[in-house]
Amino acid sequence: MKIFTTKQIAAIDQFTIQQEPIASIDLMERAALQIANWLIHHLSNERKIIFFAGPGNNGGDALAVARIMAEHDFICEVFLVDFGKPLQAEPAENWHRLKEQGKVKLGRIESQESIPAVPDDAVVVDGLFGSGLSRKLDGLPLQIAAALNASRALVVAIDIPSGLFGEDNSNNDLGAVIQADYTLTLQFPKLSFFFPEHEALLGRWEVLPIGLHPSVISETETPFHFLTAEEISDKIPVRKKFSHKGTYGHALLIAGSYGKVGAALLASKACLRSGVGLLTAHIPHSAYQIIQTAVPEAMCSIDASDLMFTEFSDLQQFSAVGAGPGLGVKPNTRKALLRLLEASPAKLVLDADALNILAMHPEWLPLLPENSILTPHPKEFERLVGPSGDSYSGLQSQLAFSQKYKVIVVLKGAHTRITSPDGRVFFNTTGNPGMATAGSGDVLTGIVLGLLAQDFEPLDAARVAVYAHGLAGDLATVQCDELSLIASDIIENLGEAFFQIRK
Ligand SMILES: NC(=O)C1=CN([C@@H]2O[C@H](COP(=O)(O)OP(=O)(O)OC[C@H]3O[C@@H](n4cnc5c(N)ncnc54)[C@H](OP(=O)(O)O)[C@@H]3O)[C@@H](O)[C@H]2O)[C@H](O)CC1
Ligand SMILES: [K+]
Questions:
Q1: What is the pLDDT of residues 411-464, one digit of tens each?
Q2: What is the whole-number distance in angstroms between the Cα of residue 292 and the centre of ligand 2?
Q3: CA 61–ligand 2 middle distance (angstroms)
Q4: What was the ipTM of the complex prediction?
Q5: Is the Cβ–Cβ distance between 124 and 52 less than 8 Å?
Q6: Contacts with 173 (C-beta within 8 Å, 6 or more apart), sequence order
Q7: What are the structural domain ranges in the chain?
Q8: Which parts of the sequence belong to the YjeF N-terminal domain (predicted)?
Q9: 244 marked as part of a ligand binding site
Q10: Which of 6, 18, 129 for mutating ligand 1's site (highest number of atoms within 8 Å of CB)?
């Protein structure tokens, strides 16, 4: 699904008003009804709701929601922030409707002294600023945000917590932003919702549809997307009756070293659970019995070294190669990785120590075959590209790296993000904090490898693998607390995850 910038959303909004057609006051009412409906279903009407309304349409939404909630017998109080200019258009009309209704206590905030005390058991609806925020908070809005952040009331933000920009917050002061417990965002999540440092500002966020016009949504281009099952399900082919294991590719996994054989084991199992026809695990001699016993479905290619990866044979027979989990970074392993890059496998996924070796030898980066998939966690990514500060800047570095070396980068995290050499970005929406556990990344590498070997387009392999990996992790928590989740649980649930994606 597409993620639009706040500027694009305003344009889509205008198009909807003209083409549907719908009056802008009625579109605001539609948004307000959605928000009010959510609040009515999630809150007790014994809790007082205090609305803070700003000068723009975000404030207009808040005024309309207060009126609707009052009709449903909620105790509402509204504070309009007075910026010394009269309200315009839809916000002015909603202020008028609220006064006419006469069910809501109305107040104005003109200075710090008139900021009301907020009881701990109240609910605050933040309608100060939304997607029209033009500068970071200062003066009175900053004082209001500080007062709300100091209170223990539950805060629900309309569209976006006031003070947070929809995209680039690299120059923002995040301490000045209103900290919401819930963010009810209209029609589309904003780009900044996918960045970890904003988690505490957004709380839990939900997207409420307001019926913006489908044709303009499909015509408006954006590089930013989030992954949904609907958009990837057709990438997973239905198996043909007369197919055989040769139809589904032969993967070579180069993984494990003495003391880190588990990484090879987890990646092998995950690869096999992802539909590959044949898997050869290239492992040090000492890992042979372990792998043959624990993963009897895999064939083994045994390194001359007892301890680590130092050599490989002809790559001709393999449809995809994966390297990295548990390899270590010893000099002989580094040399062998260089030879692997020089052999230029057509489909390649690199993870963990393979990436650490690349960070030690950035001069090898140009050897990466086009459309190779790299799956770093944030620390590995930082070793590769250097520190990049906030997430927005980090995203720019990730895109630049993908474009420079023509590779797909899968940066693992709460919203794992995939950048492609053509400039597109995909954020994942599955997964949970229980997956921050040893071996979870090895499982992802195995899935990517399994899909690549079956001849998935590399970008599709990355997208399906990331989504399925997260979904399997989510399914694992149905029976098991996040705290107890281990990487093997993700593998156990892969079958059900693929099943659900296909549906
Ligand atoms: N399509 C939709 O999603 C719909 C969204 N709706 C709601 O509309 C807002 C966006 O409304 P908009 O009026 O464009 O913007 P805001 O309400 O966020 O605020 C703009 C006004 O605030 C002033 N402003 C901006 N930043 C500051 C600041 N830091 N300090 C003080 N004042 C500020 C701005 O003044 P300027 O000087 O910048 O002109 C404006 O006066 C969206 O978020 C939704 O809630 C619709 O209701 C339905 C469709
Ligand atoms: K807001």
A1: 999 999 999 999 999 999 999 999 999 999 999 999 999 999 999 999 999 999
A2: 57
A3: 9
A4: 0.98
A5: yes
A6: 136, 137
A7: 6-222, 229-502
A8: 9-218
A9: no
A10: 129
Ligand nearest to the CA of 180: 2
> How close are the terminal C-alpha atoms of the chain, in Å?
18
Instruction: Identify the band that residue 83 occupies on the pLDDT scale cut at 50, 70 and 90.
Output: confident
CATH superfamily of 6-222: YjeF N-terminal domain (3.40.50.10260)
Cβ of residue 130 lying under 6 Å from some atom of ligand 1:
yes
CATH number for the domain formed by residue range(s) 229-502: 3.40.1190.20
Q: Residue 246 above 90 pLDDT?
A: no
CA of 391 to the centre of ligand 1 (A): 24
b/e per residue 262-301 (b: at least 16 CB within 10 A): bbbbbbbbbbbbbbbbbbbbbbbebbbeebeebbeebebe
Global pTM value: 0.96
The predicted model gives 132-149 an average pLDDT of 97
For residues 135 and 168, what is the distance between their CA atoms, to the nearest angstrom?
12
Q: Is the CB of 87 under 6 A from ligand 1?
A: no
Do the Cβ atoms of 278 and 291 come closer than 8 Å?
Answer: no
Q: Is 372 annotated as a binding residue?
A: no
